[in-house]
Design a protein that fits this description.
The complex is a heterodimer of chains A (114) and B (112). By secondary structure, chain A is mainly beta. Chain A is built from no helices and eleven strands. In chain A, strand 5 and strand 6 form a beta hairpin. In chain B, 0% of the residues lie in helices and 50% in strands. The chains are: A mainly beta (114), B mainly beta (112). Chains A and B meet through strand 4, strand 5 and strand 9 of A and strand 6 and strand 10 of B.
Chain lengths: 114, 112
């Protein structure tokens, strides 16, 4: 049972480059989300999705795009990376219809933008 | 607004000491409250949760009680172990949305 799988685990980019962080879950969860974790800031919500074809912005969406074409996958795209996007990124999922539900996290992707 | 405030760390304790990590929240409505734990190099995992006032969540010797009157959800453990060394996050849901709000995290270090 893989749970939530994120790739890559580590990535170094130059300013202006683009890349996609992949997230896949095999639990048939409707809700998926992306967070960034920065020292002293905790986790901040970037984007989230409550089902295939439905996405919405979180607290810090600027500079990031998402799409949700399937229940399983929720990629996060950086179109033009900036040093301020250096962070650890976590994907998390949860069963839909349970707003008391637990979030299941991936192991994280550490991104450095030079 | 909706927010979560938890005590700053790091918290350093000796093995078998009593642990309290404070967490307070502001909210409209009735959020569900959570404690997540992050071990080094890993993602967060749920430690315990409470879904309504006066509920007590418990797991692995940790417990926290949902106190509506003081808007608090403090994490406690009677006797910590070295293996409890981790970062602990308090979190809440936001009524009417699917947004979870996290505190800034408290690093716990337990010395043998």
């Amino acid at each position: 049972n893989a749970g939530v799988t994120q790739t890559p685990k580590f990535q170094v980019l130059k300013t202006g480059q683009s890349m996609t962080l992949q997230c896949a879950q095999d639990m048939n969860h409707e809700y998926m989300s992306w967070y960034r974790q920065d020292p002293g800031m905790g986790l901040r919500l970037i984007h989230y999705s409550v089902g295939a074809g439905i996405t919405d912005q979180g607290e810090v969406p600027n500079g990031y795009n998402v799409s949700r074409s399937t229940t399983e996958d929720f990629p996060l795209r950086l179109l033009s990376a900036a040093p301020s996007q250096t962070s650890v990124y976590f994907c998390a999922s949860s069963p839909q219809g349970m707003n008391t539900g637990e979030l299941f996290f991936g192991e994280g992707s550490r991104l450095t933008v030079l | 607004g909706n927010s979560v405030t938890q005590m700053e760390g790091p918290v350093t304790l000796s093995e078998e000491a009593f642990l309290t990590i404070n967490c307070t929240y502001t909210a409209t409505g009735y959020p569900s409250l959570f404690w997540y734990v992050q071990y080094p190099g890993e993602g967060l995992q749920l430690l315990l949760k409470a879904t309504k006032a006066d509920d007590k969540g418990s797991n692995k010797g940790f417990e926290a009680t949902y106190r509506k009157e003081t808007t608090s959800f403090h994490l406690e453990k009677g006797s910590v172990q070295v293996s409890d060394s981790a970062v602990y996050f308090c979190a809440r849901t936001t009524s009417g949305t699917y947004k979870y709000i996290f505190g800034t995290g408290t690093r716990l270090k337990v010395l043998a």
